[in-house]
Amino acid sequence: MSSKGFYVQKTKRLHSRYSLSGNAVLLLKALDDFHVGIIDHAELGRIVRMSRNNRKAVTEIITKCAAVMEKQPGEMKDCIALIQNCTEILGVAALARTCKTIRNEFLEFVYSEEFFSFGCTCDMYSHLYTNKLLQASIRSVKVHWCGPKADLAFSLLASCPKLRQIHIVISKATTTALTQRQTEMLQYFPTQRSTRICDALGIDELLKLRGMTNVYVSHILAKQGARRTDEERAGLLLLLLDKLKGRRSDVF
After folding, report:
1. DSSP category for residue 208
2. Does residue 149 sit in the same domain as residue 240?
3. Beta strands in the chain (DSSP E)
4. Which residue range is the domain that position 233 belongs to?
5. What is the rounded CA–CA span in Å between residue 166 and residue 110?
6. Same structural domain, 124 and 211
7. CB 79 within 8 A of CB 64
8. pLDDT per residue over 124-160, tens digit each?
9. pLDDT digits over 39-96, tens only?
10. Nearest to 237 by CA among 181, 166, 140
């Protein structure tokens, strides 16, 4: 029997086994009532919209089912059925398209759970600058440190209140764009053989980040670009660990 049916769920004790809240069970029962004609799509939408807890129940079901599937692969079929129910609830009530509050709450949840990876700092800057909800919700980011907007990108990243994990990818392209000071110095010392990573554009802004719980530095993949030395990677990692894990108030 399909676990999409409410009474099948009760028979299998899925609600208690997956520790679903009362609001989550209420929504699943409402969907079942919709299927048998007790309520219509407008009433289903009203039930979801009537309280923030009911709206959060949709993401709660998805989150808890995902956690169960990861730990107990044998539960995958039942978990997928419940997740499909959540998708149907959103579809029937047209919530993602017509209710801005629910759309924003759902996107906020997705943004906070997702690990975002950007190919360059310009790409990261563009996404954060144009998407304020992403800026307010993002918790984990990976970015290839390169491009002429590295300083702007890292400054914007410092304004992300929930950011807790950062992964910096370095390459020879990291020092293609330099700080204003280093650019000026090269006018007077043009024979300098190599450019230090600490002179790369964005270094000052990057070091102003605070409150990170996880900090990583890695080389770019060999097929994607020229690598820097292991000493530079290790040195940058130690520097970022020392600076970025401080309290956010330390930056002010």
Report:
1. T
2. yes
3. 115-118, 140-144, 165-170, 214-219
4. 114-245
5. 18
6. yes
7. no
8. 999 899 888 889 889 999 999 999 999 999 999 999 9
9. 887 888 888 877 788 888 888 898 899 889 888 888 988 998 898 888 888 777 655 4
10. 166
